[in-house]
Amino acid sequence: MYELLSEFIEYIEIEKGLSNNTILAYRRDISSFIDYCKTEDINLITRLHISSYILSLRENKISQTSISRKISALKSFYKWASANEYSTANPISAIEPAKLPKYLPKVLSINEISALLKENLSTTQLAAVELLYSCGLRVSELCNLNINDINLKSKHVICYGKGSKERIVPFGECAFKAINNYLKYRETLACEFDITSSRLLITDTGRFMTRQDVYRLIHKLGKILNKEISPHTLRHTFATHLLENGADLRVVQELLGHSDVATTQLYTHISKKRLKEIYFSINNQ
């Protein structure tokens, strides 16, 4: 089955154009299933194997979100295998992942964002935080930015989201200052460490900024607010603040790079919830 998995990975990478992170997740999830089944023949796997596999995941305290993701990966794999006549049956077709509870994502207030941006950040860190919040970038989009993706004259950034889909996101004056200062500083770093790559973000030690660097930075900033936050929290906050200030839902959808406006509608619920909290806090004073 590992030969089939290699073909499937090639298919989703070349023909479907999925992101590297998604491809790695698919490979990891399907490999764990193959290891569990202990067979190289896809046609020997039955629905009982799949039910038993899901049960083992639950017994090992794997979260329902992760289980649903694994089931989704297997569904895609079997759909491809059936379409290419590698599999005579699709034992997972009747298995539906459990409905996940809809949690509203965490967002920060304007005052909390201001507090984070006033912290003693390095030039590179400040530019990274501004791009995450002011442009609503995913952490992978941030780390993959090149110098040419930044247009200071028209104050916009070009980023490539899921499926390498390009979008243009404008940024404001605060982000402009942070990015402009960083680009000047970057020239010094590039000379000092003999960097010829066009990758945008370079740390003070001459390394390209990684996802792990960004996660550690945002986690550290969250401690200042006594909150558990991630880079995606800033993306949620970006969308929520836009809607709270009258931005059109479709515009926010484009800025976030959502293929379905239903995904963006989640932020309207956050805005309503926050308005209620503000209302009751005022009236209870």
Structure description:
It is built from twelve helices and three strands. With 285 residues, it is mainly α. It has a three-stranded antiparallel beta sheet with strand order 1-2-3, with helices on one face. A hairpin with a 5-residue loop joins strand 2 (156-160) and strand 3 (166-170). The chain is globular, with a radius of gyration of 22 Å. It starts with a helix and ends with a helix.
Write the layout of secondary structure elements.
Elements: H1 2-14, H2 20-37, H3 47-59, H4 64-83, H5 110-117, H6 123-135, H7 139-143, E1 150-151, E2 156-160, E3 166-170, H8 173-192, H9 211-224, H10 231-244, H11 249-256, H12 261-283
Q: Features of this protein?
A:
single chain; 3 strands; three-stranded antiparallel beta sheet; mainly alpha; 285 residues
Quick structural summary:
The protein is mostly helical and 285 residues long. It has 12 helices and 3 strands. Strand 2 and strand 3 form a beta hairpin.
Describe the oligomeric state of these chains in a short phrase. single chain
Q: Report the average pLDDT across residues.
A: 89
Biggest sheet character:
3 strands, antiparallel
Give the SSE order as H and E letters.
Answer: HHHHHHHEEEHHHHH
Low-confidence residue ranges = none
Q: Overall 3D geometry?
A: globular
From the helix content, strand content and strand pairing, which structural class follows?
Answer: mainly alpha
Rounded Rg: 22 Å
Strand order of the largest sheet: 1-2-3
Classify the helix fraction into a percent range: 55-70%
According to DSSP, the number of beta strands is: 3
Task: Count up the helices.
Answer: 12
Distance between the termini: 64 Å
Report the portion of residues in β strands: under 5%
